[in-house]
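Appendix B. Raw example, untouched.
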Amino acid sequence: MLFRLNNVWKSYGGTEILKGVSFQVNPNEKVGFVGRNGAGKTTVFRLITGQESPDEGDIIKMNGLKLGLLDQHVDFGLSETVHTAALSAFKEIHDMEVEMRALEKQMETDHSDPVLERYADLQTAFEHADGFSYAAKAESVLLGMGFPLEMWSHDVTKLSGGQKNRLGMVRLLLSSADVMLLDEPTNHLDVDAVEWLEEFLKTYEKTYVVISHDRYFLDRTTTRVIEMERGQAITYKGNYSKYLEERELRREQQIREYENQQSLINKTEEFIRRNLEGQKTKQAKSRRTLLARMERIEAVSSERSGGNFGLRQVERTGNNVLTAEDLTIGYDTKILAKKLNFSLHRGDALGIIGGNGTGKTTLLKTLLGQLRELAGKLHWGTKTNIGYYSQNLEGLEPRNEVIQELRRVAPTADNGTLRGFLAKFLFVGEDVFKPVSALSGGEKGRLALAKLIYSQKNVLILDEPTNHLDIPSRESLENALDEYDGTIIVVSHDRFFLDKIANKMLSFETDGRILDFDGNYTEFHDWKLSADAAGVSSPHVSKGNSEPQSPKSEPKSLNDSNLSKNQRKELEKRSKAIEAEIASLEDNASHLSLAMAKPDIAADFAKLNKISETHRETEQKVQDLYSEWEQISDQLT
């Protein structure tokens, strides 16, 4: 046992956050800590580290337990560089090395036993602590976390907030903590850094507990999940996907047990009512005592809504929504990408990934007309009506109330209509009169999405739409976008989200290439691993600051179809309709065959001829439908 929470309670301002939380973390465990925003996850971390104390209950830790916390806000010394900040994780080793160098100089003239013995002791301790490799280890982690060599000499005070958080992660990963407590470690990382971190944690030999809304990350790095729900901690074995399966099974079992117990209670209460004053009074009293002593099973609470992001019906665009031909983007002083070629059809969803500063947001601004294209052509199709979601939520007016902000896109709507719509985004009661400036990040994100969805745009350009949303809200947004009839262009580092939404990927690589792939994130990631190993380029490759490279060979796409998501849905719908129609016609043909065999029909030439003609027409329809069905099947495979 490393640490244990035993019946811990915690309240703030009269609001109970933790209500008897109990769980234990053991050596070498990889724990994911999940729950809605405000469920108490960060509070648990603060209690474990001693930053706060529980109102009731105990927190028991192993003697000498060394905890490492990645907080959401990291501070450094005033005179540190990026490199020295990373090396500060090895202060004890560094101090030993400094003393060893001093002793080596002293031993040039002093060969006394105390000096030699001290040097020998230090050398043994230095080797035991991997002193000869600590600098290389620090530099490897710096590179993995997105700090290139030219940044190592930068003053930490000049770093952005996101860079400071990444450097804090570097320092924590290099520490010798018995338990790492990671609070949203992927928040300020691009996809490459997140993937590097996943690989690092897979081989990490000690224990960590990670709070994260990144479901893909949780799937790849955890072997146990603790869910915070209604002030309680519930433990599940396995990664995030296993947790989802097990949670559903537990809910179904609890529902059955609750319903069975309620049935027993109702029957027992009915028996008591009928027999309490009759001949079976003694039995009735006995059953009443039994009910009083019965441990009641709690009803399964309904899942708390993550919001209802159902998108309203939009006007259809033309089939060809967007075409980019030899597009060059960037600024007059810096070109970020050259020779971009891609196209989107109605219903497509393009996922865009890449490192910071590679050109993702610049591409969005170019598509929106906020930046001019430096070269090439950009053509929007007919009837396109574009809506934009900014990750900085810059379209919100802080001085407005929530309902006033929605009215900016619905000036003629009455208050009742607007309040009803806002309720779908969890703004109920007096919440609609809160000033935008008082909203949390998640609330601002939901309000920005409410505005976008109410405006009924048929092309959505989304810049990190899940950044401020907890997992239930992300799932609701995914479900809505999956049913959306329009076209989507989305920049996101949420790979689970991209797997659910995208049918095309555009990846801005760190080496300047831009890869265009038909498929979702996992399909792209798997292809890229195999292609990189084989030295294969993509069939659609552009270079950011140089001429495009010709592909070495053409990869096998996991989705060779050029169908848009909307076209695929229509074909699948038609395929099912054909199958039903074929079954009905074949049934009719069978009945017609039986009719022609009847003696009274066979003897009546006119009737027989008419039924025979109908049978022949029916058979021909069946053959035609089979031909159509086969063509659709070929398109779908």
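End of appendix B.
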